[in-house]
Write a structure and sequence with these properties.
2 copies of one chain form a homodimer.
Chain A lengths: L1 H15 L6 H8 L3 H7 L3 H24 L5 H18 L1 H14 L3 H27 L8 H21 L6 H14 L11
Helix pairs in contact in A: 1-2, 1-4, 1-6, 4-7, 5-7, 5-8, 5-9, 6-7, 7-8
Chain A binds a DNA duplex through α3.
DNA sequence: CGCGTACCATACCGGCCGGTATGGACAAGT
DNA sequence: ACTTGTCCATACCGGCCGGTATGGTACGCG
């Protein structure tokens, strides 16, 4: 039941924003009442943190599932990137949730720490993919850590740009962006660098 | 007085977050009371939008002042980048305000539109700098628009990374980041691209 | 069967804050 | 001097929501 409440909290938070969701609504969505919420969590903040953990786990699970069926290192990297970009471009609920968590992180050190660890794990995830691709000789990269950091920064920026320029949320743009990210990683530049 | 209220609103919002600041506090900071606020603005949302406009204007003013004393195109670009990066790394109040505005943008189309126009102007600003540098032959760039977009995305990402990894907020990292951004723009790669 | 315990529903409180209603100070116009 | 309009202070309302207090139900256990 705690997991179910965390799930409901995440869903409602993602849909309407954390500040606009009361504990009554979360409880109602989970089929219980506020009394039950306060039995399992001692405050709204605790519930928010539980929703974050739910989000972290889900993200990792889906990301691993995305690259699982592919063996080729470069294709795995590209698949992961494509999924990240697609979420940034299209998943509006993801935007709502992450934005609110970022705002919260500014004032709640615990939330900030949790999200920071999540980012670390994402970085490690991509570092693994990049190094695998580099080992297989499919790409060459001078400073992997720095390149991955720069790429991750760009991904977050894309999420923001998608908010204010919905017109970039097309499959064509998606491919373009993925290509740009691969270029940051030192890969690609297939024809543009011809001159 | 409306300008003064907008200024006070921006200051308070930046310090404590929009949701945590009541109109009484804003009025008190400006030396008046809520009655005056509701005389000049018909709601808190209006005041928030006024604070945004204040922020846009200030940013443009300071940015232009930053590059004004320099003539060399490439140095102007680098100076602008350095300032943008520094704000992302160090200006915590800027983070608070922008985060809250981003969250608001998700639900208020008017706020979103305003911020989108602001971003457009920033892009134009950097496009001008990049094209000037390109015309002077100091850098060569295939697709300026695309490169500038990618760079701006990375800048926003840096603001986020600085939240969760305060250790990157050093002058040394600042220079590194500026160098990375210049590389995105097609400039630099001083020795790394030797191979 | 009595009893404690885990889990959940109901009812209620109280503070905060956006918004309003009202009145007063002060200047300008006639 | 009287009105009118601007600008601001004071007082107050009312809803929302986090949090609590309490009661009820089912189950396990001796």
């Amino acid at each position: 039941m705690p997991a179910r409440l965390a799930q409901s909290a995440f869903t409602m938070f993602s849909r309407h924003g954390i500040a606009n969701v009361s504990l009554d609504q979360v409880a109602s969505h989970a089929g219980v009442t506020k009394g039950s919420v306060y039995w399992h969590f001692k405050s709204k903040d605790e519930l928010i943190k539980a929703a974050c953990v739910h989000y972290y786990r889900n993200t990792h699970r889906q990301m691993n599932a995305e690259i699982a069926p592919v063996r080729d290192p470069l294709k795995r990297l590209e698949r992961a990137l494509r999924r990240s970009v697609r979420i940034c471009l299209l998943d509006e609920e993801n935007r709502v949730f992450t934005m609110d968590i970022w705002s919260l992180s500014l004032r709640d050190p615990e939330v900030r720490r949790g999200w920071g660890q999540f980012y670390d794990s994402v970085r490690e995830f991509y570092m693994g993919l990049v190094q695998a691709a580099a080992l297989s000789g499919q790409m060459k990269i001078d400073d992997p850590e720095r390149a991955v950091n720069l790429m991750l920064e760009a991904i977050e920026g894309i999420k923001l740009r998608a908010m204010f320029e919905p017109q970039i949320c097309s499959p064509r743009e998606e491919s373009e962006i993925v290509k740009s990210l691969l270029e940051i990683l030192g890969c690609g530049k297939p024809a543009a660098r011809a001159a």
